[in-house]
Design a protein that fits this description.
alpha/beta; UDP N-Acetylglucosamine Acyltransferase, domain 1; eleven-stranded parallel sheet; 7 helices; elongated; binds guanosine-5'-diphosphate-alpha-D-mannose; binds magnesium ion
């Protein structure tokens, strides 16, 4: 069961109209990476627990036939929290199942995690990864035998007694659902894990790649890690050993520096520099002499001449006038139009459809 019911507020404006699980990451909806990872570990039956913009998720993914799996959807009447969502799906669950937060990009060895779960006889086994600052996550302290000594959701930085956090991938026994009261919002992190501490909750520490893609900065990081091959994904097959994928139908007159991925219909004009670490979606065009580096520009966006785009994300169908600079983690929502000679930087987020005239902003 994959939890995809969050509103994705921290990833706005990318998630203003599109639910987080189906936001495009490199060349496919984000959730496809999770499904491919699960399939790689023999999972063939997936339940998506949806809330916010559920139809968007369903229409993109269908019934899973294409992926060779069974894909079902559970829709919450209102947000039920991470454990409440699980409770709603109870009739569909087997005796032992996996539960996954729907916003992590990882190649953790789930098969090894399941094997450990069986070996220890755990009721729940949490995948764990080390991070520099655990305060935005669920902090876990382990005993020698990998049983959990302590679980603290969103610890204040001074209580950090470990650098291991819950990675959002759990092996669970169905019986733990007895701990979840029906019909209301229940957080698995705050109301279930603490009860299981000392009573069958184990951790599976992993050194694998792991990233919660929930903010624009981490979305960019995830993009770069995929096209650099720091995380194992199916995109690697497209990029090959030169870390470059330029669709044969792309028209490139400027320079492209790998790692980079350019889709069908892309146009790069004379004197433009694209890369390294760039993704250009279908039909994107880059004007003469423009520089695009460490950036994602989604389907249909058109960039004028002499622009500078660095460390930024442009959603689909944006328009950018000549000599405009977009840098410093700025994010343009779908259909944003920015005139010539603007400067947009310092993490500015522009909401879908907004139109800025020439020389309107020097942020
Ligand atoms: N169906 C449903 N209903 N899904 C939900 C709900 C809900 O009410 N609330 C959250 N989710 C989904 C989100 O869509 C996301 O995929 C996942 O549950 C986790 O929610 P986040 O809002 O992203 O939580 P977080 O990132 O702050 O913390 C969680 O993930 C960390 C790892 O990234 C916790 O599980 C932490 O313990 C963990 O370390
Ligand atoms: Mg998250």
């Amino acid at each position: 069961m994959i939890l995809v019911g969050g509103q994705g507020t921290r990833l706005r404006p990318l998630t203003a109209k599109i639910p987080k699980p189906v936001v495009q990451l490199v060349d496919r909806p984000f959730i496809s990476y999770m499904l491919e990872w699960l399939i790689g570990h023999g999972i063939d039956d997936v339940i998506m627990s949806c809330g916010f913009l559920a139809d968007g998720v369903r229409s993109v993914l269908g019934d899973g036939k294409q992926l060779g799996i069974r894909l079902r959807f559970v829709e919450e009447p209102e947000p039920r929290g991470t454990a409440g969502a699980l409770k709603l799906a109870e009739p569909m669950l087997d005796e032992r199942f996996l539960m996954l937060n729907g916003d992590v990009l990882t190649d953790i060895d789930l098969s090894a995690q399941i094997a450990q779960h069986e070996r220890t006889g755990a009721r729940g086994t949490l995948a764990l990864v080390p991070v520099a600052d655990p305060s935005a996550y669920g902090l876990v302290v382990l005993e020698e035998d990998r049983s959990v000594r302590d679980f603290v959701e969103k610890p204040s930085s001074d209580t950090a007694a470990s650098n291991l956090i819950s990675a959002g991938a759990y092996v669970l026994e169905r019986e733990i659902l007895e701990l979840v009261p029906p019909g209301r919002n229940v957080s698995i992190e705050r109301e279930v894990w603490p009860v299981l501490v000392g009573d069958g909750l184990y951790g599976f520490p992993s050194e694998s790649y792991w990233l919660d893609i929930g903010t624009p900065a981490r979305y960019l990081q995830g993009t770069f890690d995929i096209i650099e091959g720091n995380v194992q994904t199916a995109v690697q097959e497209r990029l090959g050993s030169d870390w470059l994928s330029v669709d044969e139908d792309a028209d490139v007159r400027g320079r492209v520096i790998p790692p980079a991925l350019l889709e069908r219909g892309v146009h790069v004009a004379e004197g433009a520099h694209v890369g390294s670490l760039v993704v250009l979606g279908e039909d994107v065009s880059i004007g003469a002499g423009s520089v695009v580096e460490r950036a994602v520009i989604l389907r249909g966006s058109k960039i004028g001449a002499g622009c500078e785009l660095r460390d930024c994300i442009l959603a689909a169908d944006c328009r950018v006038g000549s000599r405009t600079k977009i840098t410093g983690g700025a994010v343009l929502g779908e259909g944003v139009s920015v005139g010539a000679d603007n400067v947009i930087t310092r993490g500015a987020r522009i909401f879908p459809g907004v139109q800025l005239p020439d020389r309107a902003i020097e942020f």
